Amino acid sequence: MRRAFLLVRRRLISSIPVLLIVIAGTFLLLEAAPGDAVDAYLLSIGGGDPVLVQSLRESYGLDQSIPARLWLYVSALVRLDLGWSVVFDRPILDVILERLPNTLWLMGSAVALSFGLGSALGIVAGARPGSAADRALSIGSLALYAVPSFWFGLVISVVFAVQLRWFPTSGIETIASGKEGFARARDIAWHLVLPVSALGFIYLALFLRMMRSGMAEAWRQDYALAARAKGLARSRIVVRHIARNALLPLVTMLGLQAATMLGGSIVIESVFAIPGFGRLAQEAVAGRDTALLTGIIVVSAVLVILVNLLVDITYALLDPRVGATEAAA
Q1: CA 28 to CA 268: how far, in whole Å?
Q2: Which residues pair with 91 in a beta bridge?
Q3: Angle (nearest 5°) at CA 278 between 303 and 70
Q4: CA distance 131 to 108
Q5: CB contact at 8 A, 193 and 167
Q6: Can you tell me the distance from the alpha carbon of 97 to that of 207, in angstroms, rounded to the nearest whole number?
Q7: H helices of 33-65, where?
Q8: Gap between the Cα atoms of 74 and 298, Å rounded
Q9: Spatial CB neighbours of 165, under 8 Å, sequence gap ≥ 6
Q10: From CA 298, how far away is CA 304, in angstroms rounded?
Q11: CA 104/CA 106 separation, integer angstroms
Q12: What residues contact residue 259 under an 8 Å CB cut-off, 6+ apart?
């Protein structure tokens, strides 16, 4: 327990400079782009006189220097104040908290599908390298991984939603259905089947191939040869020795793929018209709402840091050697 606590503390401390770099880099990059929040607002209302423009720039703090505005922005972030959205005319934090749960449901379900099913199929393929099952799963995963997620999403939408009409074509739930409780949860789950499949199956192929490669390598290690020499059942060797050691790289890859999957959700949410975090970023870019886009990137960075923290904890539970240096210090 102490080892896990020290590991979490060290990771949290090391994530602070990473988050500051993301905040500063995002702020400076968006400052270098042409236009600002006032320009976006004037475009939405059809223009304005110079007095209004000057007043708006003063109210938004755009008349100050870039370092001063960066300091004000970081100070506001400490108070959990992400600013004001020009596009939605609402506090940015409220807009993000409204859209974020939809993306978390999409990403969480896709991660569970890709990691769980991909690992299981990888174990089947790696249990007997070179077998017919191994070859079939390897070829199938390679073909699936080569398919773009947006194209796969469009294909399954046309087949299962338009032609067969088994699933809804778009949205996160039925509009104005009045459903509550379990009925609403079932309705949301029904709407998420196709987008979760489109996002999860691509990464499923990646985890399957990594699990299979790790197990094929583990069979040549000394501990595997010793277990076979002892006469242990093959199923026990696969589950308790081979698969457990081959699972460690997958856990690491899961943390690295968190940011990629979050970016991939933008495309999937656009294909299936899901009002989530990805579509919110698209709307912020279209509306030139730099404050909202900055808030989205900052929250995305926090999510990726939290996911990698959970991955580190899981890695420590699977491998007792992780974090042993912190505990011994």
Answers
A1: 29
A2: 84
A3: 60
A4: 33
A5: yes
A6: 31
A7: 37-45, 50-60
A8: 11
A9: none
A10: 10
A11: 5
A12: 300, 304
| Owner of token pair 């606590």 | 5
Tokens of 228: 């076979």
Q: Which two tokens stand for residue 121?
A: 């199929």
Residue type, 95: V
This model's pTM is above 0.85: no
Tell me which residue of 209, 274, 292 sits closest to 246, measured CA to CA. Answer: 209
Span 39-92, pLDDT tens digits: 666 766 666 677 777 777 777 667 777 888 888 888 888 888 888 887 788 889
Q: Is 46 left (phi over 0), alpha (psi -120 to 50) or beta?
A: left
CA distance 275 to 96: 11
Tell me the domain boundaries of the chain. Answer: 1-87+287-329, 101-245+259-277
Instruction: Give 262's Cβ-side CA count (13 Å radius).
Output: 23
What contacts 187, CB < 8 A, 6 or more positions away?
173, 174, 177, 179
- Residues 104 and 112: their CA atoms lie apart, in Å, by 12
Q: pLDDT tens digits for 272-322?
A: 888 888 788 888 887 778 888 888 889 888 888 888 788 777 777 766 665
